[in-house]
Structure formats: structure tokens, C-alpha cells
Design a protein that fits this description.
Two copies of one chain form a homodimer. With 483 residues, chain A is α+β, with helices and mostly antiparallel strands. Chain A is 39% helix and 20% strand. In chain A, strands 3-2-1-4-6-5 form a six-stranded mixed sheet, with helices on both faces. In chain A, strands 7-8-11-10-9 form a five-stranded antiparallel sheet. The relative contact order of chain A is 0.08.
């Protein structure tokens, strides 16, 4: 190791540092390199080999050009010259493009990464490396800018990223984001290695090619160091993005009071305490929750939403954008889709004053499309791990009478699970769980005598939970008919 | 007011909302508009007048073109047609450019804004408005991108901003950042008003002109809606910037352990608890503190600094960039300029074991360029407000012997101000105030008998403070010779 370190050139030192500190990779564990045979991946392959990393070169033949087979052969030869194991893959790009209605570029990319990650798993590689350079990064930033992206896009490619679609554990690593193409070409020349010419064309879209050959040269006439400037901007924005994302997610988790199909509810008082910039970011987050594609909502819409959330109009509701509606009710700020269930239907309701005995097995239908399913069942072994308030098991030994569904009584209390047998007033329970006032009177409670056993969808009472020994219990599930 | 509201067009409604919600302006208080007479400012002037705002048009004649006098006359005429008061200013741009070595554009801008803010103060206007449009915003983003800016630059112009160089109270407001140039031209046409042609040329630099006439048209061939996309990106980044800035400043204030000429010290353990993105942002902030021009420090330098701060090298120090040096000592991470005082000289020191009696008035010189000045003085009335640990007053009635300067003794305690007469071990005091271990033994203490009276530069002891009635006291000041 010492002898390797002594011979480090500035370029290999840079890559070594990036592999360790930006990509968080371990020199003692194998990596896989996506190897086109072009100057960038050839340089990275050579440096990885020089540094003594256990690297395998994986080449994917897209069969999109007649020369692609020859390119693959040459790539294999280059890997052999560097003393690196070589794996060849290929796939039918045109068929995938047709089947999934993808562009040729998208299909090529999809097949290539599928092959790379499958190979990485086979080899127990810690990561798939690609040789994306600072030039690619500058182009990516411009590509996103041209499309009108925000911070998430402008930060460009990340040095280490997990993409669950490809693999939940094995990350994609890009150790060359600080290296420019001229340096990789220089390295190949110095080593007397001829890279495969322009083999990555399959991955380069029309717009990216125009950015590389037209936009960047124009920008260089404004600033000769534009590629360096753009790469630096992307990486600085990457840090900013991490900060913003963490802060907004923390606020989101703190203020989210409820969400389901087509609606989210946020703590209104909490929203009002936010500074304007935060409030807007959080409202953007709320819109993205309902409409994942609508990240780049107009500023004016967000400003209007912020103003509304601070001071709702007299009508109490307002249309935001793209059909989304906002309103405030009882300290909750709601954002909802046109088709979202009306407010009372988001909670189960029954006829006020009604009482129904549960004679299981049964499907007990409530007033507004909700129903409770009850049957005796063996308790599954994973039950102790689940915490789904819509689906509970009761210990039948602890029930001293029939189960009845009824609404709450004045002054009624509940022994909440996890509160050590202490009781809470039902009226406080409604407030704590942010149940709107107008649905409380008709909210169904599953009771046994005077004791509340389960508030369907919200909380089980302590005395009736199953213990480790209970083999069979009463299984209750709260369901809702689709709208 | 109701009748005005009824006749609002989409454009005037947009401006009304922006004035209130983005610029935070009050319709009942006067505003000043920087009025070139071009389509943008003519449209804004007309809309402000229509909306019933008390607006004054202020035109600055740069005398840079022979037609400028005629333009000023036409601008005045347009204001009169709109029924708006008009104020004309002018200045010698060439002379200022020569005197302050500014470009003609910079000098023109400086004189114009100086005139606008002086006029705003005279008129008690709540803000200086300018008619920068979404087109200007898109150009500004690109201008910053080309120069290699980070988030602070890419967010472009702000709808409301205080620029202390111009005025500490009166903000600059830009209500037209959501409106495009074609809309302002359309408004002028519809009203039959001919704007002054291209009068803002004086403010348009060569690069900005190229961006407008060359880069944006090229980008429109990539995305016909590019100007809209860029304006939206700028405003989204504005919100992100506010979040990042607030978070980083909060961390900065929490972790800053000391700073003076040429150095900053941060809580090292606190730094290590930060996530990588945060840590980098904070180190960037530290670099900016010492080198305000060095905001766009290379990512690699920051990554290296972050790695060093997590695990300092064996030598304990490392060069960061541009001469800045970092090292860790006793739970503090230091970043310093080459010329910064060596660590021990940042605190007063004396010969270990030495003892000096204070016979006032006196200037008592310590070991390393620090000295204590002592004299009897009338206590100034504002004293009770000041909390400067380098300058204190003692109540002479409470001293039962001569004042002596000496170093600390083993097990010595101090009765700290504000701790209700309780004592603290001097050894704990050093730790709490983050005094490096190696300067503690020679740290001068001002004592009276066995009691510590003042730890110079750090804390006064409770028993010796002056009360509300004390008329005259002993005035002690800690000074340091310039390096």
C-alpha cells in the first residue's frame, strides 16, 4: 500500500480521495465499473487498477450501431491490457423501447443499468462506478436549467446515490465528477492506450449533444472557465440541496397532521409560525405530495397559497392551482384534490345515537361508506411488530360482555394503549388526535360495557390488547368503500 | 377602493398582489419609482397610478448620450400624462467613474441609486421601486451562472431587499419580477403611450446585452418557454436560499467559539456531529468570514477541510486554500490567516509566578503585547447597558486592599457575575469559556487578597460590580498592541 501511495500522481490522488471521501467506498471491497472503453472510463479503470482496487469492467453492447460488436471486443482487449476482469452484456434495446414506449436512449440506459446492477450483485460489488466527468456534470446542470429545474435538478449528478429502482443497497458511485475530459484523454495518451471512439453516443440525447457542441462553446466565449464554474456550482448546490431537504422534511414531519388519498392536512398554527421562505417551501412540499409532477409550481401560486394560509379568505377556501383546493378548518390547513372525499367522510361515522352489537364473524356497515369486519382468528406471528390502527387484535379473555359499536357519551374516558393504564377524557383524545369537531359526535366507538375498547382507525385501549401468550384473538378491521 | 378593485385587469391584479405580498408595501404610504420612461417603468408607473398608490416618478439623466436630455423631457411628459409627480436628477458619471475607478456602467448605477434613495428619504417614501421584469430576472440568473455563482447569485433579484450601502431603512422593491417585457409593451400600446426608446442602455453591460440578444435566443431554441423557466427557477432558488442561510447562520452562531482579526474557532465536537452537507456549508461560511471574496471556494478544498475536521492529520494542521490554515486544539477547530496571531497571543499572558500591584492611574504591561489600563473615573450613565468584558468598572468601596495582577492558584474559585454569589472553580471556568489549556497557567487575574476580581477580557466577579448609586469607580481596560 505504501509503495502505491508513493507513486500517486495528482490525478490518481484526486480519484483516490473522491473514491474514499465523496463516494464513501472501501478499497478492500470489490467495485464494478460501467466500462464503455471511451477515454473517461478507460482512465478510471486504469486508475482503479493502479490504486490496487478490486475492479471488474462491465461493458454493455447496445447493438445500436454496426460497429458496436467491434467496440465491445476492443473494450475487452483494453481491460485485459490493464489486467482487469471483463464482463460483456447485451440486450434488445429496440424491443424494450417499443414495449415500454421509451425513446431509444431511455431504453438503452435502462438495459445498461439493469445489466450493471445485476452484475454487481453477482460479484458482491459494493457499488457500480461510472466515469461521469466534470464535463458531464456541467452539461447535466445546463440540461436541467434549460428544462426549468429547481435546486434538485441544478445540483446535477451525485458522487454517491442509491436508486431503489436499480438496487436498494448497491449505490451508484461517480468518482470522476471533479475531473475534466481533457485530463482523461491526457492520461490515455500518456499510457499509450487508444480509447474506443465516442462509444457512449447511445446515451447522448439530441439536446445533450447540442449542449456539448453548441451551448458550452458559446458560454466559453463569455467565460473561458465556464465548465469549471458550472461543475463548481453544481457541487455547491448539492450541499445546499441536502440542507434544504433535511430542514423541510423535518418541518413536514412535525406539521403533518393527516394525509390520505387526495388530501393532506397540516398544523395551521405551526404553519403560521414559519417564516415566509419556509412556509413556501413547505407548501411546495405539500403540492408535491399530491402531485409529484408539479414540483415547479409557479411562484405566484405559492405566494398566494402562503398568503391564504396566513389569512384565509372570508369564504374559508381557495383554489390553488391544477385543481388543488385549500381550506382551513379547526386549526388544520387542508390541501386537497378535486376528487378527495368530503371532510366528514375521511373518518368513519354512524347514525348519532345508534348502537350495533358485533356478532362475529360480521361485516358491520357504518353510515358513510366505512365498515368494520370482525372475526375470530389465529394471531399471526408478525402481529407484535405491526402498528396499524385500522387493524387490531383483541384478547377475547379480557372481554366481559358483547362488543357494541356506539358513539361517545358525555364525560366518557378511554384507557389508551401505552399510557400505563391511565385514562384520558374522550374530549381531550379528539383534540390530541386532531379529529375535526364536526365528526366527533357521530364517531363510532367499539365498546364493551362502559369501557371503550377501540376507536376505529385511531387507537386501541390498553386492557384489551393481546399478550405474548394469546394464541387466538378477535380480529377487527376498519375498511372504507372506494369513492 | 372597491371601484378600483372592480376594474382590475389580470396584470394590475398581479402587480397589486406583488406589491402587497412580495414587496410587503402599504398602499397608504408613498413610494418612489425609478422611472426611465421605458416600457417597463412606464407600465409600472401607470399601474401604480391606476391602483391609487401615492407614487412619484424619479428620472436620472446620466448625460451619457446626446439624446439623454430629450429622453428626460419625454419621461417628464409621460409622467404628467399619467398625473404623477416627476422629479429629475442628474450627475457626472464620467467623473465618478474616473475618481473611483469604476466602469461607466457601475458609476451610472451608483449615481442613479444614490439619487433615488436621497429622493425617497426627502419624500418619506416607504421604498424605491424599480420596474425590473421577469426578463431581467432571467438575464440576471444567466449572468450569475456564467460567472460561476452559487445559490446566492442564482436566485437573482429579490422582490424586497434592504441594501445598507444605499439606505438602512428604505428597501428596494421590485414588483414586476413576475411580468414579462411583452406584457409591459402591450400595456403601453393599449394605453396609446409611446415609451422612451431603450433608455436603460446605460445600465446594460456588454455581457448582459449579449445574454439578452444572443444567449437567450439560443436557449429559446432548446425551450421556447426558457424565460419563464428561468424566472421560475430564480424565484424557487430564492426560497431555498432563505432556508439555507437561516439554518447555516443558526449553526454558525451555535458553534462559533471565538473569532478575531484573521482567525475563527468553532466547537470541534459540534462540527463532528454535523452531517456532511451541513459541515461543508459551515466550513464555507467560515472561509467567507475570513475571506469575504472567496465564497466559491473549490468543492475539493471544502471536502478536504471537512475530512480534516473529522479526522485531523497527524501533524494536527493542514493548509486549506488561499493561505488559510486549519488546525484542531483542545476541542476547537481553528481556521486562520497566515498573519493571524499565534494561538497564545490571542489571550493575555504574564510571566508565570509574577505578581504586579495596580497603583492607579497606571498602564500595566503584560508578557505578550497586552496591557491593562487602570484609573479612577466618574461612571458614565450608559455604563449599566454595556457588557464589554474588556472594559469594566469596579466599586472601590468593595475593595478591602490593593489590586494585584497574578496568575491562578490551584483550587482557586471565582464568584461569577450573574450567578447569585455562587462560586465556580477556576479550572471549570477555563473549560466553560474555552480557554486553551496552554494559556491557562500564565493567564493574568486581577485579584484583591484571595478573591479574583476580574479575569481580563473574560468575566467580572459579582462582589465588585458597581451598583446604581456608585458615582465614581475604578475603570479597568484590557488592550492589545497591534501586531
Amino acid at each position: 500500500m505504501t509503495s502505491v501511495k508513493k507513486t500517486l500522481t495528482p490525478l490518481s490522488r484526486k480519484i483516490f480521495t473522491a473514491l474514499r471521501e465523496n463516494c464513501l467506498l472501501d478499497p478492500a471491497v470489490p467495485v464494478l465499473l460501467g466500462f464503455s472503453g471511451g477515454a473517461d472510463s478507460l482512465c478510471l479503470l486504469g486508475l482503479l487498477a493502479e490504486l490496487g482496487w478490486q475492479v471488474t469492467a462491465a461493458h454493455f453492447d447496445h447493438h445500436l450501431r454496426p460497429e458496436s460488436g467491434g467496440d465491445a471486443e476492443r473494450a475487452g482487449e483494453l481491460a485485459r491490457r490493464l489486467g482487469v476482469p471483463f464482463i460483456l452484456g447485451s440486450g434488445d434495446v429496440a424491443r424494450l423501447a417499443h414495449a415500454e414506449r421509451l425513446s431509444i436512449e431511455e431504453a438503452a440506459r435502462k438495459l445498461r443499468y439493469r445489466f450493471l446492477f445485476a452484475t454487481a450483485r453477482q460479484l458482491s460489488a459494493q457499488a457500480v462506478c461510472t466515469a461521469h466527468t466534470a464535463d458531464d456534470q456541467a452539461e447535466t446542470l445546463l440540461l436541467h436549467l434549460v428544462r426549468g429545474a429547481g435546486l434538485a435538478g441544478l445540483r446535477g449528478m451525485q458522487p454517491r446515490i442509491c436508486i431503489p429502482d436499480w438496487d436498494a443497497q448497491v449505490p451508484l458511485a461517480r468518482p470522476m465528477l471533479g475531473v475534466f475530459r481533457e485530463d482523461t484523454r491526457g492520461w490515455c495518451n500518456a499510457k499509450g492506450l487508444s480509447p474506443v471512439e465516442d462509444p457512449s453516443n447511445a446515451d447522448r440525447t439530441y439536446t445533450r449533444n447540442r449542449i456539448r457542441h453548441e451551448l458550452i462553446p458559446l458560454l466559453e466565449s463569455y467565460n473561458p472557465q465556464i465548465r469549471q464554474a458550472l461543475a463548481r456550482t453544481a457541487s455547491a448546490l448539492g450541499g445546499d440541496y441536502a440542507v434544504v431537504k433535511a430542514v423541510i422534511e423535518a418541518d413536514w414531519n412535525r406539521l403533518l397532521a393527516g394525509a390520505s388519498q387526495g388530501w393532506v392536512a397540516l398544523d395551521w398554527l405551526g404553519l403560521q409560525a414559519l417564516e415566509e421562505g419556509w412556509l413556501r417551501a413547505l407548501l411546495r412540499r405539500a403540492v408535491a405530495q399530491l402531485r409529484p409532477g408539479l414540483e415547479d409550481i409557479d411562484l405566484e401560486d405559492i405566494v398566494r397559497a402562503a398568503a391564504f394560509s396566513r389569512q384565509p379568505s372570508a369564504s374559508g377556501q381557495s383554489n390553488l392551482t391544477a385543481g388543488l383546493r385549500m381550506f382551513v378548518e379547526e386549526s388544520l390547513f387542508y390541501l386537497e384534490e378535486p376528487g378527495a372525499a368530503p371532510l366528514p367522510d375521511r373518518w368513519p361515522q354512524m347514525e348519532p345515537g345508534a348502537e350495533m352489537v358485533i356478532a362475529f364473524p360480521v361485516e358491520l356497515h357504518l353510515a358513510n361508506g366505512w365498515w368494520i369486519q370482525a372475526e375470530r382468528q389465529k394471531i399471526p406471528p408478525w402481529l407484535r411488530l405491526s402498528a396499524n390502527e385500522n387493524e387490531i387484535w383483541l384478547d377475547t379473555d379480557k372481554l366481559n360482555g358483547p362488543l357494541v359499536v356506539r358513539t361517545g357519551r358525555p364525560g366518557e374516558r378511554i384507557r389508551l394503549l401505552g399510557m400505563g393504564g391511565k385514562t384520558q377524557k374522550l374530549s381531550d383524545f379528539w383534540i390530541n388526535l386532531r379529529v375535526p369537531r364536526r365528526v366527533r359526535a357521530a364517531f363510532p366507538l367499539v365498546c364493551c360495557g362502559d369501557e371503550v375498547v377501540w376507536v376505529p382507525g385511531l387507537r386501541l385501549a390498553e386492557p384489551f390488547k393481546v399478550s405474548g401468550e394469546t394464541q387466538e384473538g378477535l380480529h377487527l378491521v376498519l375498511n372504507k368503500n372506494p369513492a
